[in-house]
Amino acid sequence: MGDKDAPRPRTRKLYKFFNKPPRIAYALGLGTIIGKLVLLLTTRGRKTGLLRVTPLQYEQIEGKYYVGSAFGTRTDWYKNILADPGVRVKVGRKEFDAFAETCTDPVRIAEFLEVRLVRHPRMIGMMLRAEGLPPSPSRQDLESLAEDKALVILHPGIDS
């Protein structure tokens, strides 16, 4: 039997499909272009011990990198971080080790979403509308949405 909290197989396949283009872009040396929106997060598999690379949208805030998990604590990369918070990050041409701090506090996640809305109103607005929120979501709307989401704050250069 599988993990009851894991994303459904169809969703997982779609997610893997959309993860390929950013990884290919980085491999082709286009990190400076794609690195403005997407970083590559390398975690160690909690079951296999193998390195796993996941492209994620991010925001840099006060020298730290913030990534959100749309599937909350159910994603494999998030579970890997819970088992081992020492990660490797590639952003553009920069690569560094980091400590991954997990967060499921809806208030902090709503704050992150507010920053994303200010910086990328069209893209994030579209994503939030797909989640069923109104075009101009209130703080309460964001906190309600954040109740089943997760956030990871990547602290560069800090060992676990």
Please, what is the CATH homologous superfamily? Electron Transport, Fmn-binding Protein, Chain A
Spans where pLDDT lies below 50 across 5 or more residues: 1-8
Write down the CATH class.
Mainly Beta
- Which structural class is indicated by helix and strand composition? alpha+beta
Rounded mean pLDDT score:
84
Examine the coordinates and then state which fold CATH places here, giving the name of the CATH topology.
Pnp Oxidase, Chain A
The percentage helix is: 25-40%
Beta content comes to 25-35%
Number of domains: 1
Largest sheet: 7 strands, antiparallel
Number of H/I helices: 6
Number of strands: 7
**Alpha carbon gap, first and last residue:** 32 Å
Report the oligomer. single chain
> What best-fitting shape do the alpha-carbon axes yield?
globular
Rg over C-alpha atoms, rounded to the nearest angstrom = 15 Å
Q: Major sheet: order of its strands?
A: 2-1-5-6-7-4-3
CATH architecture designation: Roll
Order of helices and strands: HHEEEEHEEHHHE
